[in-house]
């Protein structure tokens, strides 16, 4: 058996074109009857629009310049490199300690890095097992969840900056604030968006199935809306590129019944007062017209849209529900990528049905399939050997007990315990090899050892269905019922037929 030294993540898909059917599947974690859905909404960035590494580099390099302007040492910062494989979604940044963590679904820290150095098991335990043996809750100001692919840039800059600050400088928490500020500015001052506007094809991955996918919902009688935090000018650039039209065309607007740009999620999904503005798309920049004082309900949903146009900025879900004429959140299906801003808030506050877009699923599913035979079977074999070694020790203990003899005095004990220790070590090595085959630092996105990862738990808890690309929905009927596999308990028998 040859253990892969480098994870085949990037090449996995190219090497396995026959896996396309597998990687484009839509998975269900909560039953969803599409017949009950009146309106289907889409987030734009990292949902309809997938970006490549060149896009991340705009934010990364732009933020490096800003950190140098803030006074961080130029010589060190210039050396920072962006490696898209260095971090993954679902990790948690511990700002105070300068660490990045991967947890299982019980919030037990399974892997941790201080900056770019992996912490040993002992270091991890010293920092993340409290005196009474409990684990911290990981809520509060010290922690940041990597909930979107945009944040991989923050994680990478922070990790490399922590290495520099270990030699002295401001606190890790201050460094995180500065990284956040630098990246935040890049999203606002044109460092990223001006470049995308000049040459969208350099940064956005085209997808021919998007337009038919959006159209099928309209044809099935559902309202379709776009709800994005991007402002109109940038939305216009990205959407025109995705529908294959010139930037002045705006044919993309016809794909939607309502468009909300600059939505300001998650606040849009809350109950605070936020005025909604109508956007006049007559200009590329989208001139804003205030329609405060003219509630949609008073002027009559769809009639209002016809008369006033259908592109809006800001506001809240209340105006959106009225324009879409939906009676309850359960009639809305929202497709997004941000774990908190798109999934958790919309489900918790409004009861929206949700679809999470997880591009990372594609390489992960290929690896699941490719690694199925060799590495996973080695792990299963080592688990069995470990169990047998433990059983042998226990049998000796019970046998001596029944004879009234002392286990600790027994000659056989040492040999059996040595075998037990060796089998545990072999199992650990096999599990580590499987882990590294998925990702050199963090292992599989959806698993942490034998447990579901914290990310996997969030996927199951907050997304009704999930898939690698929004356009995969084209292959599913707009009236189908998605049904999850049956839940099982550890005591359920694998062989038992479903009830
Ligand atoms: N001001 C900031 N904007 C950010 C940051 N990270 C991402 N973004 C922008 O948000 C929208 C995402 O839109 P959506 O379609 O996913 O709702 C996009 O315009 C990003 O540029 C940030 O750190 N600061
Ligand atoms: Mg998004």
- Strand order, main sheet: write it out: 1-20-17-16-3-11-12-15-13-14
Percent strand: 5-15%
Radius of gyration: 26 Å
Tell me the total number of β-strands: 21
Bound molecules: the ligand Nc1nc2c(ncn2[C@@H]2O[C@H](COP(=O)(O)O)[C@@H](O)[C@H]2O)c(=O)[nH]1, magnesium ion
The quaternary organization reads as single chain
Gap from first CA to last CA: 40 Å
Cofactor: Mg(2+)
InterPro entries: HAD-like_sf, HAD-SF_hydro_IG_5-nucl, HAD_sf, Pur_nucleotidase
Pfam families: 5_nucleotid (PF05761)
Organism: Pelagomonas calceolata
Please explain how this structure is put together.
The chain is an alpha/beta fold. It has 18 helices and 21 strands. The strands form 5 sheets. Strands 1-20-17-16-3-11-12-15-13-14 form a 10-stranded mixed sheet. Helix 3 (53-69) packs across helix 6 (152-165). Mean pLDDT is 89; it is low at 1-17. It binds the ligand Nc1nc2c(ncn2[C@@H]2O[C@H](COP(=O)(O)O)[C@@H](O)[C@H]2O)c(=O)[nH]1 and magnesium ion (MG).
Explain briefly what this protein structure is.
The protein has 499 residues and is α/β, with parallel strands linked by helices.
Which terms summarize this structure?
499 residues, alpha/beta, disordered N terminus, binds magnesium ion, globular, five-stranded antiparallel sheet, binds ligand LQESDW3C, ten-stranded mixed sheet, 18 helices
Helix and strand arrangement:
Layout: H1 9-15, H2 20-23, E1 27-28, E2 32-33, E3 39-42, E4 50-51, H3 53-69, H4 74-78, E5 92-94, E6 99-103, E7 109-114, E8 117-118, H5 121-128, E9 143-145, H6 152-165, H7 172-188, H8 193-198, E10 204-205, H9 210-219, E11 223-227, H10 232-242, E12 258-261, E13 276-280, E14 287-290, H11 296-299, H12 301-308, E15 311-314, H13 317-324, E16 332-336, H14 339-350, E17 353-357, H15 361-370, H16 374-402, H17 411-438, E18 447-448, E19 451-452, H18 454-462, E20 465-467, E21 481-482
Parallel strand pairs: 3-11, 3-16, 11-12, 12-15, 16-17, 17-20
Antiparallel strand pairs: 1-20, 2-21, 4-10, 5-6, 5-9, 6-7, 7-8, 13-14, 13-15, 18-19
The structure holds ligand LQESDW3C and magnesium ion.
Keywords: Coiled coil, Hydrolase, Magnesium, Metal-binding, Signal
Binding site for GMP: 45
Protein name: 5'-nucleotidase
């Amino acid at each position: 058996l040859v253990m892969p030294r480098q994870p085949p993540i990037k090449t996995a898909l190219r090497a396995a074109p026959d896996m396309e059917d597998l990687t484009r599947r839509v998975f269900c974690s909560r039953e969803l009857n599409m017949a009950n859905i009146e309106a289907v909404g889409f987030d734009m960035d990292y949902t309809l629009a997938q970006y490549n590494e060149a896009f991340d580099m705009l934010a990364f390099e732009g933020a490096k310049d800003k950190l140098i302007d803030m006074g961080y040492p130029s010589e060190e910062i210039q050396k920072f490199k962006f490696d898209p494989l260095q971090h993954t979604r679902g990790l948690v940044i511990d700002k105070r300690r300068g660490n990045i963590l991967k947890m299982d679904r019980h919030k037990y820290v399974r892997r941790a890095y201080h900056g770019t150095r992996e912490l040993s098991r002992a270091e991890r335990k010293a920092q993340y097992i409290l005196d009474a043996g409990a684990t911290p809750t990981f809520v509060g100001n010290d922690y940041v969840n990597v909930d979107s692919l945009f944040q991989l840039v923050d994680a990478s800059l922070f990790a490399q900056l922590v290495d520099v600050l270990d030699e002295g400088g401001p606190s890790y928490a201050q460094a995180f604030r500065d990284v956040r500020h630098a990246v935040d500015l890049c999203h606002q001052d044109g460092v990223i968006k001006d470049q995308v506007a000049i040459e969208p094809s350099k940064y956005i991955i085209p997808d021919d199935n998007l337009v038919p996918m959006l159209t099928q919902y309209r044809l099935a009688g559902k309202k379709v809306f776009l709800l994005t935090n991007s402002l109109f000018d940038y939305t216009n650039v990205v959407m025109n590129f995705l529908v294959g039209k010139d930037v002045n065309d705006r044919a993309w607007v016809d794909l939607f019944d309502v468009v909300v740009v600059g939505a300001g999620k998650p606040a849009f999904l809350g109950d605070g007062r936020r005025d909604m503005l109508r956007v006049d798309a007559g200009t590329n920049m989208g001139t804003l017209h205030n329609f405060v004082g003219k509630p949609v309900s008073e002027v009559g949903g769809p009639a209002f849209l016809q008369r006033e146009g259908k592109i809006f900025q800001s506001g809240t879900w209340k105006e959106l529900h009225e324009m879409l004429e939906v009676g309850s959140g359960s009639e809305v299906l929202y497709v997004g990528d941000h774990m908190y801003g798109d999934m958790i808030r919309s489900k918790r506050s409004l009861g929206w049905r949700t679809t999470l877009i997880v591009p990372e699923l594609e390489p992960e599913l290929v690896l699941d399939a490719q690694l199925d035979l060799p590495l996973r079977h080695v792990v299963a074999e080592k688990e069995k050997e470990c169990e047998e070694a433990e059983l042998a020790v226990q049998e000796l203990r019970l046998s001596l007990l029944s004879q009234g003899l002392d286990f600790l005095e027994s000659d056989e004990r040492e040999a059996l315990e040595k075998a037990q220790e060796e089998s545990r070590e072999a199992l650990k090595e096999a599990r580590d090899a499987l882990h590294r085959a998925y990702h050199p630092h963090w292992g599989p996105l959806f698993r942490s050892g034998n447990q579901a990862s914290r990310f996997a738990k969030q996927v199951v808890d907050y997304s009704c269905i999930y898939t690698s690309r929004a356009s995969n929905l084209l292959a599913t009927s707009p009236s189908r019922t998605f049904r999850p596999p049956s839940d099982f308990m550890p005591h359920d028998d694998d062989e038992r037929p479903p009830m």
